[in-house]
Automatic annotation (TrEMBL):
Stretches that traverse the bilayer: 20-39, 51-71, 86-108, 114-136, 143-160, 172-192, 204-222, 237-255, 267-286, 292-311
Region of interest (Disordered), ranges: 317-352
Species this protein is from: Halomonas korlensis
Lineage per the UniProt record: Bacteria, Pseudomonadati, Pseudomonadota, Gammaproteobacteria, Oceanospirillales
Protein name, as recorded: Permease of the drug/metabolite transporter (DMT) superfamily
Keyword annotations: Membrane, Transmembrane, Transmembrane helix
Domain EamA: 22-159, 176-308
Keyword Transmembrane: yes
């Protein structure tokens, strides 16, 4: 009787918990991804130099992930790692992690609000769509371009509202989040063109190590060589824990979980929700609220981004791909000579 109940209960329990698991992944992804912008704001408010704080943040994160890599290598057996793959991931990390976060941090240091920086950062999947059409040969639909136009208009309205706010950011500093979007888009497309076969912990070690070098170089060149570790005060330790646990490991972990569960398109749509989450963070923690023009811009940016990402989804009919492959590999009855092989399936590049 007990075994019968288990055979009935466990599948039913899995069926009911599956939507809850997807909801947990989606919420965790949006919260942890938006926490990085809040962490930048927290780091700017400390007495310690923000660039040095970020450099040591990535140094500690690299040591932790490198230790995880070594432990897994000892348990599973050492595998040969190609230096080319490490170099490619390091170059990708210097753009997608180092260059992206450096430009965002400098913008927030100049007075750009964290909510606006998050809104401009959420346009990155749209920039990847545009660049993929030119570099990777992917076609974009008219509704995608309309969504991009609406999202860009919303970002422009939010910039105008932020320039009238209390941040006092100079006009040129609003180009820094755009530069961040450009660098992370180039890095993501480069990763799509030159994929590596490294395990996750090895890729993350290479990318975080490259980001460490970027921030130490930036602290040395832009902050008068102030690269000393931050003092171990309560505030600095809390900010480091926030940035390493929530923003780095939480954001990257939920990012991969979202890709596995939802795919690239829906994960990019979740990115479009991070400005609203960042706005909630900053309103509760710092009392930052945009004006009416910024609220309109935020709404337009969210609607345009989500609309463009959803317009890019291409539903496939059940059995369509299987039937196509079956027709191509059907044996040629009564014929002699070489047979045609089925063309290799070409996977869509995973741009981000």
């Amino acid at each position: 009787m007990l075994s019968v109940n288990r055979q009935f209960f466990y599948p039913v329990l899995r069926l009911h918990l599956r939507p809850l698991g997807g909801l947990a992944v989606a919420l965790g992804f949006v919260i942890c991804w938006s926490s990085g912008f809040v962490g930048s704001r927290l780091g700017v408010e400390l007495d310690t130099p923000a660039l040095a704080l970020y450099a040591w943040r990535f140094a500690l994160a690299t040591l932790l992930v490198g230790g995880w890599w070594c432990l897994r290598a000892q348990r599973q057996g050492r595998q040969a790692v190609a230096p080319r793959d490490l170099a490619v991931d390091a170059l990708v990390g210097s753009l997608t992690v180092g260059g992206y976060l450096l430009a965002m941090l400098l913008a927030i240091e100049q007075g750009v609000s964290a909510g606006l920086a998050s809104l401009i950062g959420a346009l990155q999947p749209l920039a990847a769509i545009a660049l993929a059409g030119w570099w990777l040969g992917e076609r974009s639909r008219p509704l995608q371009w309309l969504g991009m136009l609406v999202a860009t208009l919303g970002a422009g309205l939010s910039v105008l509202d932020d320039m009238q706010g209390v941040g006092g950011a100079p006009a040129w500093s609003y180009g820094l989040p755009i530069l961040a979007v450009v660098t992370v888009t180039l890095g993501s497309v480069m990763a799509a063109r030159r994929p590596t076969t490294l395990p996750l912990e090895a890729r993350l070690t290479a990318q975080l190590g490259a980001a460490t070098v970027v921030f130490f170089a930036a602290a040395w060149g832009l902050d008068e060589g102030r690269v000393a570790p931050p003092p171990l005060t309560t505030d600095s330790v809390m900010v480091l824990v926030w940035l390493i646990v929530l923003a780095t490991f939480g954001g990257y972990g939920f990012f991969n979980a979202s890709l596995q569960r939802f795919g690239v398109g829906r994960s990019a749509a979740l990115i479009a929700l991070t400005p609203a989450a960042t706005l909630g963070w900053t309103a509760l923690m710092f009392g930052e609220l945009p004006g009416w023009l910024g609220m309109i811009g935020m709404a337009l940016g969210l609607l345009g981004a989500i609309g463009a990402l959803l317009a890019g989804r291409r539903p496939t009919q059940p059995g369509q791909g299987t039937a196509t492959v079956a027709r191509s590999v059907r044996p040629h009855v009564g014929r002699s000579g070489p047979r045609r092989r089925a063309p290799a399936v070409r996977h869509a590049p995973r741009t981000w």
